[in-house]
Each structure stands twice: as structure tokens, then as C-alpha cells.
Design a protein that fits this description.
Blueprint: H1 11-18, H2 24-40, H3 47-54, H4 56-82
Length: 83
């Protein structure tokens, strides 16, 4: 035997029928907080700021390595010129 029961009601009606709490005010508050935080952090989406945030040591380390190489190359050229 197979019985099919179709219930036509809104989610609010089903929630109140089963005695579940209305969480809409809490969801609205959480969504407002998320929206406020995202709006406040929009400046972090700037590519330059993101790179500085994600790779501060990496970029500085690369600059130091580049300076070291240039110093070594300059030292080699000076030695050849004096020889």
C-alpha cells in the first residue's frame, strides 16, 4: 500500500506547525554583520594592498637578493677593471 500526502504551506507555517523557532531575525542580524565587514574591508581588495599583505617578506627578500646580485656583479666588474 502506498499513501501520498501533499501539504501546501509556506516555510513559516511549517515551522510554526512543528514548533520550531523563527530564526529570521537572527539570520538578518548575521547577514547585516557580514555585509558591514565586507564593506569595511573593500580597501583590502586593492591589488597592491593584497600583494603587500600576502607577500611582505617575499617581496622584501626578493629585493634583497636582487641587491646582493647587483653588488656581486659590480664587485666582479671592478676586479676585472683593476686587473
Amino acid at each position: 500500500m502506498k499513501i501520498t500526502l501533499d501539504v501546501d504551506c509556506t516555510p513559516e507555517e511549517a515551522r510554526s506547525f512543528f514548533g520550531l523557532p523563527d530564526v529570521k531575525p537572527m539570520q538578518d542580524a548575521v547577514m547585516k554583520e557580514i555585509q558591514d565587514r565586507m564593506t569595511a574591508n573593500l580597501h583590502a581588495m586593492d591589488p597592491e594592498t593584497m600583494i603587500k599583505t600576502w607577500l611582505p617578506a617575499g617581496v622584501q627578500g626578493m629585493e634583497q637578493i636582487q641587491k646582493m646580485f647587483w653588488a656581486q656583479f659590480a664587485g666582479v666588474t671592478r676586479k676585472r677593471e683593476t686587473s
